[in-house]
Every structure is written in structure tokens, then in C-alpha cells.
Amino acid sequence: MPELPEITALTDFLDEQLSGAQLTQLLLPSAFALKVADVPHESLIGRTVESVGRRGKFLVFEIAPAAEAREGEDSAEPLYLIVNFAKAGWLTFSDKQPGNDATAAGGYFAAQLGFSNNGSDFGITLTDVGTWKGLAIFIVREPEDVHGIAELGPDPLDPAFGLDEFSRFFTHRQQIKGILKNQKLMAGIGNAYSDEILHAAKLSPVAPASSLGPDAVERIFTSMQDILNGAVQEFSGKKPSELKPAKKASMRVHGRTGEPCPVCGDTVREVAFVGTSLQYCPTCQTNGEILARRGSSDD
């Protein structure tokens, strides 16, 4: 699942390419991916992209009012085209308009968008390679009209988000990996970076949050800041096609089951759950204990 660092790099790239561009095409081969449409999606054609940004793991296109808008019409107000990539969604970007066919290399696509900017054409294809198609598109008047955005907690890289606020999350028995992944507490961290943060902090992913002392909580906070900031800097300037490989290459334990831990050399282990898994190093994180399956990483 795309997480904060790669979504940040993606939005920076798209904002640079598409700010001021006219949306010339919006093809939805089926209505499945379009979850909310406050106005018909065809009404976005001809409008200008004001900016491309991020809310948590959501990609947010701000679309300017129509040039010929009259007061009181839907076209007289800005709209937001918002994408949630879910578990297996992503996009491809090209320097030409997309075709009008309903197939894409590798299988299903959720939407195709065409843009024109200062004489240059661009195309975006939103794809989903998962068995269960979770990629979702929303066309709304305000980002907070999307339920998932309205419930988001603070951004962990927001300068206003400090250790004191972070420490308030560690007052109950939810597992600490679940704390980091809970979008209502913090927006943008998922399965991969929660594994990486806890490995760097040398803490078990299944430890109850309330069992941690102040030093351990501060260690998680520092690791979180270091890893996310480092990944954002590493991915900056990369094209969309380069971001997933870059993320995979940067992982130290996530997705590395059976490989040696880069810190201590012990074998990276996995705990599988329904539809997901976590990776950890027994020596670095659990005092050598091999974890058993425990129902859900959010328990």
C-alpha cells in the first residue's frame, strides 16, 4: 500500500507537471471505482488543475471553477478529485494523452485522465492489481466530504505534531503496530513503515501500547521522524514509476522474511494475519522470542 513518503513524492511530481493544466479527458471504464460524485464527472472536463496535494494516503487534485461559470452553478466553485490507492492501487504517468480503450497493460484500470499544459500533453492511468479492487475515486466540493479524510489524525511530519501529542496514544492495550497504522490517530503510516519504525526503535510490534515507558515512546517517535523524513528526502524528484522499487529497496525488515537483519544478522521473521503480515527481527525487537500468530496486527 502506498504510504506517506511515496505519496508525498508523487504529489510533488504531479503538482509540478500539472498545476495550471487543463483536464481534457476523464474516462471511467466502470462506475465501480467512483465512490462519491457530487457533480457528474464529465463536468470536470475543461477545468484547470489548481494544485495536486496529499491528505494522509489520499491523493488530492484541486480543480478550479469552470472559466465560463455563472454564480450559483456547480461550475462556479472549485472541486476536488481525490484518489485512495488502497492496498494495490497506483498510477502510471505519460507525456501523451491516454487512449480511449478500456484495457491497460497488466489488467484492470480504474480511470484514465488526460491533461494539456502549455502545449504539452500528459496522461494518467489509475491502476489496481489487487485481487480485490479497492482503489477509490471521489469528486467532492471539500476534501473533508470524503469520510476517510474527515477522520484523519494529524500528519506525523507536521511541525506542530510533537512528542507530547504522540505520547497520548500510548494509554491503552492496543498493540503498538496498530497504533502507528491507525489513520484516526496519525495519517499516512501503513504496514511497511510501521515495521520499519519498530525495527529501528527495537520494540516488539505486538507489545501493548500501555506497557511502554516514556523512553520507549520517545524512541518510537524519534525513529518515526527519522525514517519518514529520510524516505521523503530519498524519494524526492523520482518519477511515479520509480517510487515503488525505491520503497522496496529501502526496507530493512518489511518484505524481507528469511533474509538476515542488516543490524544483527538474525533471520527476519514473519507473522501472518488475514490478508496481511508483519516482519520483525527477533534479536533486535523481541529478545529472541519467535512470535506466534495473534489474530490481527490491529489488536
From TrEMBL:
Domain Formamidopyrimidine-DNA glycosylase catalytic positions: 2-106
The UniProt keywords, alphabetically, are: DNA damage, DNA repair, DNA-binding, Glycosidase, Hydrolase, Lyase, Metal-binding, Multifunctional enzyme, Zinc, Zinc-finger
Cofactor(s) required for function per UniProt? Zn(2+)
Can you state which reaction this protein catalyses? Hydrolysis of DNA containing ring-opened 7-methylguanine residues, releasing 2,6-diamino-4-hydroxy-5-(N-methyl)formamidopyrimidine
* Domain FPG-type residues, every copy: 252-286
- Write one Pfam family the protein is assigned to: Fapy_DNA_glyco
- InterPro entries in UniProt: FPG_cat, FPG_N, H2TH_FPG, Ribosomal_uS13-like_H2TH, Znf_DNA_glyclase/AP_lyase, Znf_FPG/IleRS
- DNA damage as a keyword of this entry, yes or no, is yes
Reply yes or no: does the keyword Lyase apply. Answer: yes
Which named protein is this? DNA-formamidopyrimidine glycosylase family protein
Identify the species of origin: Arthrobacter ramosus
